[in-house]
Design goal:
The complex is a heterotetramer, with two copies of chain A (630 residues) and two copies of chain C (354 residues). Chain A has 630 residues and is α/β, with parallel strands linked by helices. Chain A folds into three domains: 5-240, Pyruvate-ferredoxin Oxidoreductase, domain 3, CATH 3.40.920.10; 251-437, Thiamin diphosphate (ThDP)-binding fold, Pyr/PP domains (Rossmann fold, 3-Layer(aba) Sandwich), CATH 3.40.50.970; 519-628, Rossmann fold (3-Layer(aba) Sandwich), CATH 3.40.50. In chain A, 36% of the residues lie in helices and 20% in strands. Chain A is built from 20 helices and 24 strands. In chain A, the strands form five sheets. Chain A has a seven-stranded mixed β-sheet, sandwiched between helices. Chain A has a seven-stranded mixed β-sheet with strand order 12-11-13-14-16-15-22, sandwiched between helices. In chain A, strands 19-21-20-23-24 form a five-stranded mixed β-sheet, with helices on both faces. In chain A, helix 11 (307-319) packs parallel to helix 12 (330-346). Chain A is globular, with a radius of gyration of 27 Å. By secondary structure, chain C is of the alpha/beta class. Chain C is 29% helix and 18% strand. Chain C is built from 13 helices and twelve strands. In chain C, helix 5 (106-112) packs across helix 6 (114-123). Classes of the chains: A alpha/beta (630), C alpha/beta (354). Strand 10 (248-254) of chain A pairs antiparallel with strand 12 of chain C. Bound molecules: thiamine diphosphate (2 copies), iron/sulfur cluster (2 copies) and magnesium ion (2 copies). One thiamine diphosphate sits between chains C (62-65, 81, 105-108, 132, 134, 136-140, 145) and B (279-281, 307, 331-332, 335, 362). Chains A, B: Keywords: Oxidoreductase. Chains A, B: Its EC number is 1.2.7.11, 1.2.7.3. Chains A, B: One of its GO terms (biological process) is response to oxidative stress. Chains A, B: This is 2-oxoglutarate ferredoxin oxidoreductase subunit alpha. Chains A, B: Residues 37-225 form the Pyruvate/ketoisovalerate oxidoreductase catalytic domain.
Chain lengths: 630, 630, 354, 354
Amino acid sequence: MSGNEQVATEPPGALAPPERHVEELERVVIRFVGDSGDGMQLTGSEFSRVIARAGNAFATHPDYPSEIRAPTGTLFGVSGFQIQFAANRVFTSGDAPDVLVAMNPAALKTNLGELARGSVLLVNSGAFTAANLARAGYASNPLEDGSLDSYRLIAVDISLLTARALAGSGLSKKEADRCKNYFALGLMLCLFGRPIEGEIADVAERFAHIPRFAEANVTALRAGYGFAEASELFASTFEVRAAPPQPGTYRSITGNQATALGFVAASELSATPLFLGSYPITPATDILHELTTLRNFNITTFQAEDEIAGICSAIGAAWGGHLALTTTSGPGMALKTEALGLVTMLELPLVIVNVQRAGPSTGLPTKTEQADLLQALYGRHGECPIPVIAARSPADCFDAALEACRIAVKYMTPVILLTDGGIANAAEPWRVPDVASLPRIEVKYRTEADGFAPYARDEFLARPWVTPGTPGMEHRIGGLEKDFLSGNLSHDAQNHQRMVEVRAAKVAGIAAELPPLVVDGPDAGELLVVGWGSTWGAIAEARRQAEAAGIAVAHLHLRHLNPLPADLDEILARYRTILVPELNLGQLSRLLRERCLREVQTLHKVQGRPFRVSEILARIKAISAGAEHE
Amino acid sequence: MSGNEQVATEPPGALAPPERHVEELERVVIRFVGDSGDGMQLTGSEFSRVIARAGNAFATHPDYPSEIRAPTGTLFGVSGFQIQFAANRVFTSGDAPDVLVAMNPAALKTNLGELARGSVLLVNSGAFTAANLARAGYASNPLEDGSLDSYRLIAVDISLLTARALAGSGLSKKEADRCKNYFALGLMLCLFGRPIEGEIADVAERFAHIPRFAEANVTALRAGYGFAEASELFASTFEVRAAPPQPGTYRSITGNQATALGFVAASELSATPLFLGSYPITPATDILHELTTLRNFNITTFQAEDEIAGICSAIGAAWGGHLALTTTSGPGMALKTEALGLVTMLELPLVIVNVQRAGPSTGLPTKTEQADLLQALYGRHGECPIPVIAARSPADCFDAALEACRIAVKYMTPVILLTDGGIANAAEPWRVPDVASLPRIEVKYRTEADGFAPYARDEFLARPWVTPGTPGMEHRIGGLEKDFLSGNLSHDAQNHQRMVEVRAAKVAGIAAELPPLVVDGPDAGELLVVGWGSTWGAIAEARRQAEAAGIAVAHLHLRHLNPLPADLDEILARYRTILVPELNLGQLSRLLRERCLREVQTLHKVQGRPFRVSEILARIKAISAGAEHE
Amino acid sequence: MNDRLDCSKESVAVSLTRKDFESEQDVRWCPGCGDYSLLAQIQKLLPQLGIARENFAFVSGIGCSSRFPYYMDTYGMHAIHGRAPAVASGLKLARPELSVWVVTGDGDALAIGGNHFIHAIRRNIGLKIVLLNNRIYGLTKGQFSPTTELGEKTKTSPYGNIDRPFSAAALALGAGATFVARVVDTDLAQLGPILARAAAHPGTAFVEVLQNCIVFNDGAYAALTDKKQRDELRLVLEHGQPLRFGSNGERGIRLAGLRPEIVSVAGAPGVPEGEGVALSELAVHDESDPHGSLAFLLAQFAAPEFPLPLGIFRAVAAPAFEDMNAAIEDTARQQRGAGDLASLLAGGDTWTVA
Amino acid sequence: MNDRLDCSKESVAVSLTRKDFESEQDVRWCPGCGDYSLLAQIQKLLPQLGIARENFAFVSGIGCSSRFPYYMDTYGMHAIHGRAPAVASGLKLARPELSVWVVTGDGDALAIGGNHFIHAIRRNIGLKIVLLNNRIYGLTKGQFSPTTELGEKTKTSPYGNIDRPFSAAALALGAGATFVARVVDTDLAQLGPILARAAAHPGTAFVEVLQNCIVFNDGAYAALTDKKQRDELRLVLEHGQPLRFGSNGERGIRLAGLRPEIVSVAGAPGVPEGEGVALSELAVHDESDPHGSLAFLLAQFAAPEFPLPLGIFRAVAAPAFEDMNAAIEDTARQQRGAGDLASLLAGGDTWTVA
Ligand SMILES: Cc1ncc(C[n+]2csc(CCOP(=O)(O)OP(=O)(O)O)c2C)c(N)n1
Ligand SMILES: Cc1ncc(C[n+]2csc(CCOP(=O)(O)OP(=O)(O)O)c2C)c(N)n1
Ligand code: SF4
Ligand code: SF4
Ligand SMILES: [Mg+2]
Ligand SMILES: [Mg+2]
């Protein structure tokens, strides 16, 4: 495939090279971009599915506007979906795309900047009308003015070809036009040499309730595929071999789905009913959607009037013996902090999920960030210790949710689980675990009245869980300071000190049972990259690439942010330089500085976007180069 | 005055020593304790007034139950008032009392533990009835069972003597009994050799609206004084010389009063109307009370439906060009955090006062603590920097309020002002400042439309203050991320990073203009005690006492907690040991560790009470002893 | 501990007494506070309900009134300011078999907690909400509340209150309340029976108790409790009965269209012969009026124009939220089968690697 | 910039046009969203009010509807979810001369913001609150809201909604509203005049706009806007006029006591001779009913039993909060004299050291 190819509605002529060949690639990044109405999210996930079925590893990242349906053709109405796939383990959805599929001028304009020269640019030329060009602010048509010369441009009038393919289908012009994303999908499947049969079956199923759309979409898909093949549209097609991963059943899963499933599993594994009190907020709402649908399980979901009622209802349910949750994002988290104080005093189990988004205030609601870490640790009045854990990838949300529940019920404590918009909506393959292999979560309600004291503690400093309805143990709890044993309110000075200390000790004590930290890479040396949460993929990949480039670098990723693991100091001490990449201004960095009293380098990014691997890699290289120069 | 004196209703006999003499003291701590209904707060403040008038320095500390009117005679219904006075500068209300005035058995029981052996114990023996003893849980009468032998006990049947003095006054028995606090006051004035004329005039004035009470209280006061004198009740009386302080007009002021006056002054000095949006909460409510009464100034107070509306209404008023405030305490602070994010985005001036109380949750609402520091710094989602300052003493609240307003309007930013229950209700003498000497606060609303951009910044990175109603500059602001100049909403990735950074830089930049830190004591050496907020008095006094005992120790007290002053690192580096006493589990300690990457020793106390000087002194001595042993 | 264990479900109907509901904690309200009366009435009522002691839960917010749960020897939670209805809603959804009570104040329920109050009522969730309305913030020592009357001087309205008060009953009706009652703290004749009706009501039952705060708002209801005046000032509501008041029922409410007017009742003692209107012309109280407009009208009545209505304004049947919630689970199971974790995890689109 | 400066107070009455109120920002609602209609009507109304452009302030919370201020070339604040009435209250108190508007949604005003909504109304502070009620959370993509009807399937009620909806009008009335109106987004004949009335009302004016969300709740009001059906389904309120509906006004509302019933109007087209009741028997709409009970009754009307009332439910005069607030300052100055800082600082009990 060479230079600049211009293809209109007919099979390519002179410009097409005489022979097609197959380029084999280790990994590929594709970005689908178009108008919000162009169905790019659907195209992207359908494509992922095909990829997944073939046994490739992948990671995806959707990027859509905060407007529900922005006016057609505008720059702010552009919706995107990026996927990286490879033979084996894929850590991120990729930095810059290798292939950009742009469905209109606005999409081209907003995304071209990230496309490396020489990459494949597939464009729906039919959308490059005067009106659309104007809306996108193009003075001249980039398909014609030579400004795209340095890309491998393939311009196809997808609009027209789709319309032609559907002529006679009985669909209105507008309806037919909506099928063009399947035409584009067809093109891409051809480009990557994937069969379309599975996808055809899927489309048929997905649109089963509206048969004429099912049919039309299948037609468009076939037309796209057929057109690409017949026209020899692509000078070369690509192949990304699949190296089968660990045997098992796989599915694609987003972070929000995995979080929801983790909670269902926790409920089943502890034989404890689940209660979710929540108020919708982007990007956390999908967890509520998911669990609301699963009411055939032992689950109650309650859409409260606000976030305060969300957490308070969950506290009521926790008191009533349910495995209680509340899910939210930044602004909602702010509203829950008073109740977090209450539940810390009550010492009832509760999991609070904060799917972080870009702040402060309303910020950039659909964009990602990791800037709520210090809030999770310190965002309450008084000494109010709460365990904090974070998930590192979409699939990891499942394990993180289980871990949060485990700590909550074992220690009778609220637990904050941090995920973020980046992993919440991104998807990756997940090996479906065998239920029998999942660890049970032990829940014991106390029913024995003899010797009962509401605030007597076990060896983990947890108090007993006694639910209303249990005979013989009626007692009162509340947010005022309470007596060390009876839980009755106490104004005693020494008692207050003792209670403040025991609450702190209980949470600090969790560190004692955490498994040893695992470092990827050399276990001592020049550089340790420490991360938490969703930066995992980018750091892991950067480390891999650095290693491949001959730079020894280690990577430590923290699940537990409060308490920090006991062996942390010792591990950090083994490296000369500590680098902490974060999607904030350096919050974990502060914790590490405070904890270990040593310099750490921060790499921060606050752009509403995940790290690119290259950004981390560049810093690793710079540090490594600097070290050599010393 | 010797041993154990038992005095009933008659002048003392055999046990009284033959001669009275005057003991001269440098400083004295008196604690008045009694039932909530016994009027101890009033007695205490009246006594302070007499002390003040004589030119003594003093500091007071009230300590009352959270119940409004607890049942008579119960342990939890005990109300106390402590005063320390001295010739010159008094830093705290004192550790253990030298004189304890106990009006009933419950008061004796709850306070005796803090009285050093050999101290004076003045007791109203008339209240030691069987019923009251039982309510206080005394098996036998401590006045009779010898358990008080090691104190200088003076038992006076104040109840009976007051009743006798008021026989024929026409007051009911109950009414007459309420005057016994004035009888006690009379006793104390005699003990300390103070004239009662001024007080008599005051009582007359205070009760002017109920003349029969005015008269009765004066009678009781005289009776108490006369009884003590005539009966030669006290073997010796005490004298605490007054060393006149700086010339000027003085008044007694509590922290909440000073805070309120500081804001009125800021409003007058900036010629900007004041707006307070608030919701009542202990111990902050008095600021609202105070300002509500002062509506003859250019002040609007708005008692909102909750804390969220309190701050949001203040945001609205700030937008409208008012010098806007919201006042609250811990739980209310928690509720304001979402709106703090908004106002950080809006970049409007706003002062948020958190009168800290013991937490977490409802905690101990009437008790003090300093555990909201990290919340003030980090308690918001996203990167949301807000300047934080703290007041160190009741009178200092005035200056701190002025400083908060100055920063808010200069930098167009919210500012958090931390005080606490300890200083909010405590009183000390305050030299009334000359209004002309107070610094003006410059407020400029922009009215010039030419070249206007809502988020253009001046050299301090502050944006212009344009209030609705100004022609030609209509624009929109909000909580979504905004364009660097126009303030219109912007989803641009780089713009977000730039805005996050500029907001951080603006707040960090305040450090540049802070005056050099002042260290009390040696400017380098073994030990520096670093404090913030209300611990100032106890640390300063401990330092003074250490110095007197030959231990060189320095004291640095921080007004600015965010940003920390620029010269902090350099100062800390000059001392081998840093000790940070805090009424929390070590929050400033964390900030210092993180900032300076060095060990600091923490001395923490979380008992709902201020530090005792002795607690800090002991630690200073231990450190000094340890250093010698090294 | 042993006598406590007596109170198991089986033995409850016979064995419980008022004493069983008194906790060991000293009651810490001011002597003479109206809250004592409610406490006594509730402690008297509960043993009569045939519910095991452990199945009662009292939830409160913050305020003098909100100390209530401490004094009940039942399960209790003294939560945070204004949030009791939300906590209680979670508990009730989790454990619908419990008898869940919310005890709150005018500040707690109507100031900071206004939103949860109206939403609990809107949903008609099975909570008994008892609001001790002393028209003042007691615990924080005397600021005006959302029910303080216009012009009242309080610590935060030294020049007279300018915040128009809510009618708690009107607000509840506006939110769709299915049970609304109002009663004076010391009126034992009404208090007990109304609480009993509230306890039996499915869905949210709201009872406003006019409670005297002797410290910060003493005498707010003095006229209503004063035997000499009260009959002229209060209108006792009885379902199916004409709206009459006065010591001899000599006055009543007639509706001209929707506008109420006070009339004399012909033939009643003290009404001159030939004067007054026939009893049959008076409006008749109807708790079950489907649109609640009579209740709403009555909820607007206030001195000095009208006597203050006391009793049950409204009591209508509507599905309780917790029952509808339980039904969802059935629907879900019908539609999707009982939940099975293994197939859920393997759900969606899977592929297998051998 | 120059033509902007034209809009000073003096020139306003003559010079402002609709265009002057259009901001430079692209409107980002979905094509066909009902919000556009309100925007157009407001932009049309404001130039007619004789108020300088700079004296308008629009405050909103979060939601599709809450994007409103961005599109108005007035002062505007897009605040946080649910809190617009509180922000606006502060602004109005600080600057009573401004015309302050709150634009909100059913989620923003009635879910998270319910408390501020009822308290603004209770105080009767001079805000114009316009609620775009699409019975759904639009911005978060389709969860049920506090006005979603029972049984509706949404993203968070896949088995049918079990939360009973508020009647926004009833809630406002319960909170003591002095001005309550309801109008359909596309009904330009009603929308403009009602907004004008709201703008002129002293105190809180509440206007509920039934707004179609074409993406997540399309057709929620289809029947009401459908020319063929709407006359049967809506009841247009006109002060002083009998409550009639139907395409020929052939049906009406009669009150039997307080219970409403639908009757045919004798003599109206389509009503058979000798059938129906006399026009004079119909209830007559009265915006100014002091107790608001007719308004409350109408606020309960809902399909299918009754036609949906549209128009002004209530409009009564009551002192505006900001005016009472201003009066406090006078009282305080009368009682204490104008504030003087020096004597304030030296106030209380002072002593002098020479
Ligand atoms: C978040 C929060 N804000 C404020 C307070 C302070 N506060 C406690 S009780 C109360 C008012 C109580 O009034 P009400 O509910 O009428 O109770 P009452 O004391 O009159 O019975 C207030 C403002 C608090 N505890 N928490
Ligand atoms: C504190 C907080 N909670 C939740 C959200 C998420 N959120 C934004 S708008 C909205 C609902 C909006 O519904 P409505 O007011 O009806 O507006 P519409 O979009 O329907 O016009 C929610 C839940 C938020 N932005 N902030
Ligand atoms: S302050 Fe009032 S409400 Fe509170 S306990 Fe005392 S009397 Fe009761
Ligand atoms: S989602 Fe609905 S309410 Fe929101 S802009 Fe689109 S049509 Fe309007
Ligand atoms: Mg009250
Ligand atoms: Mg809506």
